[in-house]
Amino acid sequence: MDTDLSSQDRKDLDKFIKFFALKTVQVIVQARLGEKICTRSSSSPTGSDWFNLAIKDIPEVTHEAKKALAGQLPAVGRSMCVEISLKTSEGDSMELEIWCLEMNEKCDKEIKVSYTVYNRLSLLLKSLLAITRVTPAYRLSRKQGHEYVILYRIYFGEVQLSGLGEGFQTVRVGTVGTPVGTITLSCAYRINLAFMSTRAGEDNGAVYPSVEDSQEVCTTSFSTSPPSQLSSSRLSYQPAALGVGSADMGYPVLFAGGLNAAHPHQLIGPGKEGGVPPVPNQPAHGTQADQERMCTPLDGVHYSAATPSSSEDTETVSNSSEGKCGSPHDLLETIFIRKVGAFVNKPINQVTMANLDIPFAMFAPKNVELEDNDPMVNPPESPETESPLQGSLHSEGSSGSSTGNTHDDFVMIDFKPAFSKDDILPMDLGTFYREFQNPPQLSSLSIDIGAQSMAEDLDSLPEKLAVHEKNVKEFDAFVETLQ
Amino acid sequence: MVGPGRSRCCGPSGAAPAMNCRAEVLEVSVEGRQVEEAMLAVLHTILLHRSTGKFHYKKEGTYSIGTVGTQDVDCDFIDFAYVRVSSEELDRALRKAVGEFKDALRGSGSDGMGQISLEFYQKKKSRWPFSDECIPWELWTIKVNVVNLANEQERQICREKVGEKLCEKIINIVEVMNRHEYLPKMPTQSEVDNVFDTSLKDVQPYLYKISYQITDSLGTSVTTTMRRLIKDTLAL
């Protein structure tokens, strides 16, 4: 009966429950950020650390929790739930856990609110700290980044466990009896993560979620990735359009396979080009805003696609490009010269190695190309193996035999990554990123020269050893100067 | 590997069993290099629940409590991470105890089996000439079986398996902690040293002691070592 509880105790209890709920959300979300958490102990009480525990308050999380609670407290039939889900770069998502803060009707009238309940809530938070590290989602969250991110969602009301799949398990973190009911904190977590493995092997012709669907998810879910990670993972959702990594070409190819195929210097890995679909309607993931954001950093080169599905994209792209490019050639020159050292420029407009029929073609020596004539003057040959996209992308049906012809078909726009300054070309973030995405091949690692020099080195070893032995005294003197 | 067992007869050997002492037993099988991390994970998890902030008594007999910080620890030899109290002194004390246990396990006469015990106790002042009595109120025993593995593949599997088992142990520990069974009453200022270890500068665990036993191949206890690690390790 509430009448047994003094009004002061009632007020205190409500306050404790409210802040307990807020701290619970903080602990759960922070445990899914993917980072190690560390807070300091303080012997002097600061007065602001609820439950005598140093738990930082992330303002956004507190805001969302308060919004979900909307001035109410967990009560019978009204639970506060934190849903943790995983979202892949392809836009698929999967619920991993539901943390529930519930209240049942079992009351403990004898318990002292300001002392016992408070201390037990503190103990329960410690238990939550421990348990959040032992469910499977913790390890997933520590590895989030390029392939997936972890999202959280807070809601108030009835617990919804249907998204956890079959055979989910529950772990009870603990309970605290109070004069108005018993607080229970528990977690239901998915154990069937089979979704992850099947998704990776699926055909590239899979349907992608529409922008509307992903938009809905995005407005109610919040990523737990720290902003730096989020931006890098967003960057990584873009294709290896910046010229890297055949290993990564799986789903990135899907997003901009067409762009890769048409652009002569984009590397197309041996991955899944056979199944590359037409340029998709929508981006692999993200809201409309994200789509636009993700479009622009793609190496600054966009192609007017003939496929009607991407006409919207084309319009957006070509409109934005109109005011920006001078002559296509000038722009090409600006974009395509990359600085590999302070005074060294490396033309990146090279023949793709994809047309060479050797495994790991992209790791083959590029010094052959480096010694060629300036590719700006002598455009590289078109790749022998053409992606099926090339036909659709070149509206005039040309196979892009010469760079000059190719340029007539395509619209160049300036590379504008978000937040970059465009007044000082080419030293912006995007250029920097592009530069160091594709460093030149080390000459010692090249296959031909490497093999030769290895043999030579071995042969010359005895001679070198003899020379060094003669100079032993010099070496010793040198070593002594170091000491 | 067997799950937790429970017995009501407790107390370190040589001392009279205390009837109110709660006893919990956990068992783990680990590879030699995993002993330290596994023990630290369990002991730190227990002490996380059995430590408070520093008490600051005020004139009116009330007290305020300091803040306990926490930090994540990743294991190097086990696919596992745990949370511990942010206190270097406490961490050092536990590492010293676990280090000695690990060395004893490796020593001769050991078949790779032993147990480490963490006992929480209260001091009861006695009149002279009798020394203070230590009354245990909670005893955690971790039985360890060290396994030898033949190849890297087995070691990799062991990393994962031991990680999963430790997750189960943490859940077991939390379950016990949240039964809200007997805890010593909050002491007055004059009594605080009978209940809590007040020697650390940043946190205040309940008074505890760590001991271990190594079992030889015959299954009998070869060495019983009682160490007052509070005094030994924290005395500078």
From TrEMBL, chain A:
GO terms for cellular component: Atg1/ULK1 kinase complex; cytosol; phagophore assembly site. Residues 266-289, 301-325, 371-405 are annotated as: Disordered. Pfam families: ATG13. The keyword Transcription does not apply. Gene3D superfamilies: HORMA domain. Keywords: Autophagy, Cytoplasm. It is found in: Cytoplasm, Cytosol; Preautophagosomal structure. InterPro entries: ATG13 (IPR040182), Atg13_N (IPR018731), HORMA_dom_sf (IPR036570). GO terms for biological process: mitophagy; piecemeal microautophagy of the nucleus; protein localization to phagophore assembly site; regulation of autophagy; regulation of cell population proliferation. The keyword Cytoplasm applies. Residues 391-404 have a biased composition (Low complexity). Its main location: cytoplasm. Residues 88-195 form the Autophagy-related protein 13 N-terminal domain. Residues 306-322 have a biased composition (Polar residues). Belongs to the ATG13 family. Metazoan subfamily. PANTHER family: AUTOPHAGY-RELATED PROTEIN 13, PTHR13430. This is Autophagy-related protein 13. It comes from Taeniopygia guttata (Zebra finch). The gene is ATG13.
UniProtKB/TrEMBL annotation, chain B:
It is found in: Preautophagosomal structure. GO terms for molecular function: protein kinase binding. It holds the Pfam family ATG101. GO terms for cellular component: Atg1/ULK1 kinase complex; phagophore assembly site. InterPro entries: ATG101. Its main location: other. Keywords: Autophagy. GO terms for biological process: autophagosome assembly. Belongs to the ATG101 family. This is Autophagy-related protein 101.
